[in-house]
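Structure record:
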Amino acid sequence: MENNTTNELLDKTYENVRMASYAIDCIMEKIENEKFANLLRKQNEFYLETVTYIENLAEKLGHKLKDINLMQKSMSFVSIKMKTIMNNDSPKLAEMLIQGTTMGITDTIKAKNEFPTKNKD
């Protein structure tokens, strides 16, 4: 049972971090403010380091991670593109990213509570 909850938590966390990185990739071409773009590149580096950490942990535990669902990825892409057609100003893009990050954090906290694990990593 412990392995199942650890694996579920790894999957949920992996999905959230991959989705955050994907969202940044989707809007980078729209960003005109270089300081904002640099900040997002730095944030994406953190996400990619976290992805690597989760992948290594899953490999160590013998678990094959579930990646972002294709439908979820497609819906996110369309949503981001639609929202940025109307307004691609830096404040609007920042607001979109904050909302997405908040949803990801909320989902990860829910997963942590739903799939408790004794694994400290």
